[in-house]
Design brief:
By secondary structure, the protein is mainly β. The protein is built from three helices and 45 strands. The longest helix has 8 residues. It starts with a strand and ends with a strand.
Length: 641
């Protein structure tokens, strides 16, 4: 390994602290960085520990505590003890000073221990030197002037999160003094909440983190820094809460907060946020971001405050001031509410809310409203007509469509659409049905699952201005003659119907006749037309033309002439639907697969025809598979635009 020293620096660093682990009830430790990376490239620190204590230091934390820009992680190479005249290498079997833990098999150590229980009456000073190295081969020399004193005069505050056994695990935290729990030397000037902490014996721990509240040595409960935990839900990506604090010192303090989001029993660095508490401050808001993957159930939070930032960088170890408070936090399940806004050409004539997606030219908002009528969330509907709300908690809601965005926690705006547009129906689900209204509102209750297909139908000016409202279009055949029938329930300035025929699977259409329309009518109108069928598949549609030339197509109908049983798949390319005709009788399985073979949907039919919705398929190439009653599979390739 190539070893290199850090270049000398003359920068002075102000007093700081570092974190460590201890295995007895009463102890504390803090140190001061005197001159980081001076001419001899070393970190010199002063430390104080209790007599008869057993303290374990993290080499990496010790190095980074003085300069967070150092490469990491650091590991110890060797350790020395000053004998009064010089530093002497400490042997591996020394009863007091021991290098610990080699996690990566390179013989270097991640921790070292000072075990004064093997010299329980010693009070005085010991000077330790540790040489450590990082992954890049950089060497730092750390000298610690260790003062061993009698700590019985200190009154301490500890947390009370569950800590049934040494170490950590699910529902088992470093809490007690014997398990390196967070401890603070009580100060009457700096604490969490409005009530100064009472002294703790260092062994309070229990599920629920309420034992310190119950076992007060003071007159009232001192665990009251967080009075309200806002709802924390499984789909949360951020979380904020307010902590009451008291800082009557004349210097800034640091408040650190952890929430064990992954519930592994460790308050980790990526679960910590911090805030500076100025003198005289009474509260602070802590905000966690980048949250993901939460699961419902109980977890715990820990809050620490101290004047020394580095003493509350970690959720364990001793701080020379302030307080620690632990709380149980419940992560609750949350759900999604999603739906579509469809440009629904025929409204509820077919009792379906369907069509192509739209967002009204980026002018339609979906607004989630609670039972009190206040906005919970809002979102601009996507260009494809979809919208989605995440982190929705169980209760009763409405979704409203509006051109006015909502304001969170304020009354919802009224339903509205762009000028001349109108609502044509609402329904929850992709199956036939509607809510009996056309008002742009849908009501529902979120219980214990996601709500999908909260769908709205709208019509644009182009639809409203169509020559007519087509209520029916069908085709039957006798021998090889097609008989087409259609009906309208309203016609406004309608000119004619162009009847069109395709014999190439829907790739192109030819006008075969024109039928005059009624012009203007509010009554039911019926139309008929017959036409000889061509051999094979015949696809018919109507082009409904207004007197100003505006036109719109109907849906298609199809017939087959002759005895051939060739299967036809159309249109290809597909947009919203893919149709299959000409299949044999009997039960058949039709499926759609990606080009790499992954099955995306399976459908069963006993007829010779099936139409499959492809609106939600991404653009690309797909395989349509047909398995007949004899389990013979035929594949057809199609393109989704």
């Amino acid at each position: 390994m190539k070893i290199k020293l850090y270049p000398p620096q003359k920068k002075k660093i102000k007093s700081n602290g570092f974190l460590f682990r201890v295995s007895i009830v009463s102890y504390f430790l803090f140190f001061t960085v005197l001159d980081a990376f001076a001419a001899t490239s070393f970190i010199s620190t002063n430390a104080t520990i209790c007599k008869n204590s057993n303290v374990t230091f993290s080499v990496n934390r010790l190095a980074l505590s003085s300069n967070t820009n150092l490469p990491a992680p650091f590991e110890a190479i060797r350790m020395y003890l000053h004998n009064g005249t010089s530093f002497v290498l400490i042997p591996a079997n020394d009863p007091i000073f021991t290098l610990l833990t080699d996690n990566n098999g390179n013989t270097f150590k991640e921790e070292f221990r000072v075990n004064m229980t093997n010299d329980p009456t010693f009070i005085g000073i010991k000077i330790i030197r540790i040489e450590c190295v990082d992954n890049a081969g950089n060497v730092a020399v750390m000298d610690i002037t260790l003062t061993v004193g009698d700590c019985q005069t200190y009154t301490m505050d500890y947390g009370d999160a569950p800590d049934a056994s040494v170490g950590t695990g699910v529902g088992n935290y470093n809490t007690t003094a014997a398990d390196n729990g967070a401890g603070h030397i009580i100060s009457p000037l700096l604490f969490i909440g409005n009530v100064a902490p009472d002294s703790d014996p260092g062994n309070l721990q229990k599920a629920g983190a309420m034992i310190d509240d119950i076992s007060n040595t003071g007159a009232i409960d001192d665990e009251e820094g967080v009075t309200i935990f806002p709802g924390l839900y499984t789909l949360a990506t951020s979380y904020s809460l307010t902590v009451t604090v008291t800082n009557n010192t004349n210097t800034d303090a640091t408040l650190s907060g952890w929430i064990d989001f992954n519930k592994n029993g460790v308050f980790e660095l990526n679960e910590r946020v911090q805030a500076v508490i100025a003198p005289g401050a009474t509260s602070a808001t802590l905000t966690w971001t980048g949250i993901a993957g939460l699961t419902s159930g109980d977890t715990y939070a820990r809050f620490r405050i101290a004047t020394d930032l580095l003493q509350v960088e970690d959720a364990t170890g001793i701080a020379g001031s302030g307080e620690v408070e632990d709380y149980k936090v419940i992560i609750k399940p949350s759900y999604t509410v999603c739906g579509n806004v469809f440009l629904d050409l025929n409204g509820l004539i077919d009792n379906l809310v369907s069509g192509e997606g739209t967002n009204g030219d980026d002018r339609i908002y979906a607004i989630l409203v609670n039972s009190s009528g206040n906005v919970v969330a809002d979102t601009l509907v996507a260009t494809n007509g979809t919208y989605c709300f995440t982190n929705v908690i169980p209760q009763t809601y409405s979704v409203i469509l509006s051109t006015t965005p909502g304001t969170i926690n304020s009354p919802a705006p009224s339903p509205s659409l762009p000028p001349i547009w109108r609502f044509s129906g609402e329904n929850i689900g992709a199956t036939p049905g509607n809510d009996g209204q056309t008002d742009g509102i849908l009501h529902f209750t979120v219980s214990n699952s996601n709500i999908n297909e909260v769908n709205f139908g709208v019509q644009s000016p182009a639809i409203i201005g169509l020559p007519l409202k087509l209520s029916h279009f069908s085709a039957t055949q006798q021998n090889c003659t097609a008989y087409l029938k259609w009906e309208t329930v309203q016609e406004i300035n309608s000119a004619r119907f162009d009847v069109e025929l395709s014999t190439d699977g829907g790739r192109s259409f030819t006008i075969i006749t024109n039928i005059a329309a009624a012009g203007n009518s509010d009554n039911l109108r019926r139309y008929e037309y017959s036409h000889p069928l061509m051999p094979g598949l015949n696809i018919f549609r109507l082009s409904m033309v207004d007197i100003d030339g505006t036109s719109k197509y109907s849906s298609v109908v199809f017939l087959k002439c002759g005895t051939e049983t060739r299967i036809s798949v159309f249109p290809n390319p597909a947009t919203t639907n893919i149709n299959v005709v000409g299949m044999s009788t009997g039960k058949k399985e039709v499926s759609i697969a990606s080009i790499n073979g992954s099955i995306l949907g399976v459908y069963e039919t006993t007829t010779s025809y099936i139409s499959i919705n492809t609106a939600n398929l991404p653009a690309g190439i797909y395989i349509l598979k047909i398995k007949d009653p004899m389990n013979v599979v035929t594949n057809y390739k199609f393109i989704k635009q």
